[in-house]
Amino acid sequence: MGAGHAHRLYTHRSSPAHALPPHCKLAAVLCFVLVVVSTPREAVWAFGAYALLLAAVTAVARLPAVPLLRRLLIEAPFVAFALLMPFVVPGERITVLGAGLSVPGLWGAWNILAKATLGTAASVLLAATTEPRDLLLGLQRLGLPQPLTQIASFMVRYGDVVADELRRMSIARRSRGFAARGPRQWGVLAKTAGAVFIRSYERGERVHLAMVSRGYTGELPVIRELRATRAQWARAAALPAAALPVCLLGRLL
Amino acid sequence: MHVPDGFIDAPVSAAAGAVAAGAVALCLRGARRELAGAPGTTLTGAERTAPLAGLVAAFVFAAQMLNFPVAAGTSGHLLGGALAAILVGPATGVLCVTVVLLTQGVLFADGGLTALGVNILIMGVVTVAVAYALFAALVAVLPRGRRSVGAAAFAAALVSVPASAAAFTLLYAIGGTTDVPIGTVLTAMVGVHVLIGVGEAVITMLTVGAVLAVRPDLVHGARSLARPLKLRVGGRLIDAEPVPRAPARSPHRVWLAGLATALVLAGAVSFYASASPDGLEKVAADHGMDEKAGEHAAADSPLADYGVEGVSATWISGGLAGVIGVGATAAVGSGLFYAAVRRRTGTPATGRIGRTGDPGTGKAHPAGEVSGGSGDSPAGGPAERS
């Protein structure tokens, strides 16, 4: 905990995008994704326009492009699902490089790839410009019930602590000559998971008592009221507002 | 296998989100009960939920990072839904998985924001509900003992993963954006997930076993193994005074909420349901089976084909038929249930539902609550549980 509390997902900059209140950004990203999802897949150019919009946001936020692109890899498992579609979907077939591909399947794969990539990119930008704690405050401001945001904030706060515990156990195992090669070693790994569960649960009990002894009754005091001026809302709305005409044009054409 | 944006269409995503939100709201109240502290303390659960569920969510999150090598350089990881349900109880389990999915969606861009409801529904609610229902049933049926808990954990985790895949396929069949033949999707998804489920089952069983060996009181699913509390008085063991339990709440509100949800789904959401034939009808049509099938005997009843005769607007007609159907089903079901309860108890039903699968009821509180870790005397004072 000594190395600063900024999360590794968050890229610290001073930019207009970083300065916006979190709930404005969350609402803007959600609207943007909704617009993207409701664009018909035949409007291929529209998705290019959305990508340009996101690139513009990246430039405004002064974020490096390569690390952001690398984080898009998180959607890889479903890309595999999308890539299978041209082979299994029935319908009209075309031959590309000797392989028979189905046309509706190709459209389906394109649809998923384009929309999922844009959605992921928007979320990545959101996480890179907003601290996790602020994101949770923003979710609460947008109406997520407090118990849920409290649980999430405890998870974010202690996630790294528990992960570090796991890492220390892994170092201890390896320094005693343990190497996980196959299912035969699962027993040891499962005992690790069990030990981490017990430690986490007991830590939860200690945290709870420590908080109760400081007057906690189930509600966290609101120290910082999240407020947004009309100008800030307008700035946040620029992204979905720019995307909406593209979507409408895509539906008309 | 987080569902990204654009995979399931908007109406179905919204409906899934509504169902998931309802389930999470119920679980928030259930978790308060599951995580309630030792009886007799003035603190009764509400303020224990956030730290404990938060830390368990952090554990689920960390456990997903633990790599289990399979063979030839491949490795898998735990999904954790079944494990969380067995260790901390179904309601807390759903909350933990929900929060993990929420943070993954918002912070790590894993799983689409518009698909958050879908993800919570299939990976949180369905996984935990299936796993815990099966687990509780097996623990109740099998002989009491640690080995039975392990076996039940194995079966629960094994079934929960393909069940979640099947739930995904169902949502995809209703609101998928591409017409992949559903049979193919189901075979592929369930096939792959049975394999994943075997790994999940082995790991879940081993992990539950590891926790049982050290802190059996922390395993929510093994509370039935807890022995009644004995006190040593003058060298003899005697049964401790039973702790009075708070009376079970009336189920009327749950019943009303369920009825309201069903009415909304039938009356309004059914409008969005797919008009294409369902799987069975499709198979029947493809193989010419339905040519032989005559019209149903009720084909000219006033509600045939889910529409009300004499109402022209299709959506009103369909919605009305749904509402009438739900009302009739609820009336008949409640009547049967009422009759069954009345017959079993021999007295008029009082509306109280006893807790099942908890042989310790009335004798002593389970050990999990005794050594809840708060260091309070186990049997001190009357229970004040919310």
Automatic annotation (TrEMBL), chain A:
Q: Where in the cell is it found?
A: Cell membrane
State the InterPro entries in the record: ABC/ECF_trnsptr_transmembrane, ECF_CbiQ, ECF_transporter_component
- Gene Ontology biological-process annotations: cobalt ion transport
- Please give, as recorded in its UniProt entry, the membrane topology of this protein: Multi-pass membrane protein
Bilayer-spanning residue ranges: 20-37, 43-65
| Record's protein name | Cobalt ECF transporter T component CbiQ
Leader sequence segment = none
Automatic annotation (TrEMBL), chain B:
Residue limits of the PDGLE domain? 253-339
| Stretch list, region Disordered | 347-386
Q: Where are the transmembrane segments?
A: 51-70, 82-108, 120-142, 149-174, 194-214, 254-273, 315-341
Q: Name one GO biological process term.
A: transition metal ion transport
The biased composition feature labelled Low complexity covers: 376-386
According to Swiss-Prot or TrEMBL, what is its membrane topology? Multi-pass membrane protein
Transport is among the record's keywords: yes
Question: What is one Pfam family matched by this protein?
Answer: CbiM
Supply the InterPro entries for this chain: CbiM/NikMN, PDGLE_dom
Domain of life of the organism encoding this protein: Bacteria
> Does the record's keyword annotation contain Membrane?
yes
User: What is the first-listed, main subcellular location in coarse terms?
Assistant: membrane
Q: Which keywords does the record carry?
A: Cell membrane, Membrane, Transmembrane, Transmembrane helix, Transport
Location(s), subcellular: Cell membrane
- Provide the protein name: Cobalt ABC transporter permease
